[in-house]
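Researcher: Please translate sequence to structure tokens.
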Amino acid sequence: MDRHFDNVTVLLGDKNGKYPQGNSLLIRGSDTVVMVDPSMAVVSRAAELAGRADMVLLSHVHEDHVAGVHLYPKAQVHAHRLDADGIRSIEGIMDIYGYQGIDDAVRSFLVDQFHYSARPDALDFDDGGTFDLGGVRIHVIHTPGHTRGHCVFLIEPGGILFLGDIELSSFGPYYGDAWSDLEDFERSIAKVRAIEARVWVSFHHVGVIEDRAQFIERLDRFADRIGEREQAMLDFLSQPRTLEEMVAHRFLYPAHATFPFIDAVEQRTIEQHLDRLTLQGRVVRSDEQYRAIA
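Model: Translation complete:
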């Protein structure tokens, strides 16, 4: 069921927006109506929601956050300047992912499953920008790491913080694309923790939280997944291992998952941890193998 907070409606996807679903926002000002991150949940309600917004606002550009953009051909589309090329063309979103050797599979995944539709006319915004909808304001806070241009949105009045893919799930932070960055993500989590809000909305899994203590608990648990992954890698490296062996072991996805991009995401994620652990002197590389320092 949708959740209503004054001028903001949270359009909850199936199972609180479990991927590939998501939780979108419909925000009504006296002058402008905005759809935030039109998800597969919006697509499934196209008869009700198509065309019912003057503006589409994207927290970032990933397939599940732009799935419903095609339902708003007359609306302005806005994304952070570092992500905007991803909605302007399919080549742009392919650059964000940066997966090697699986272009055809990913393009098919985008178009066939997520209805990707390029918007060459998309406009960009930057950190600190404000959208005044008439009695309602959306404040942009840049929180990179998941993508270079990932942002959260603070909606006033009401103090509603839309978290995008700082999504509080048990999966933990995702920083497995070419334009993702582990340490940027850690800094963004700290930034979000300090923002004053009264309602928190995650795009996936959790949905709506109205208690700050519960939000902080979920955010800290989400952040802890980074350290847990890193420790699992150190444990695995008690014996010398190649990068290929680490990718095959899987530190993010379960063995039964079959998305075409999994190996690329595992590799990008592992490489960032290895770079940090090597710099810290906790891992050494010899030839093509890595080993943890006891």
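Researcher: Any highlights?
Model: The longest strand covers residues 137-142.
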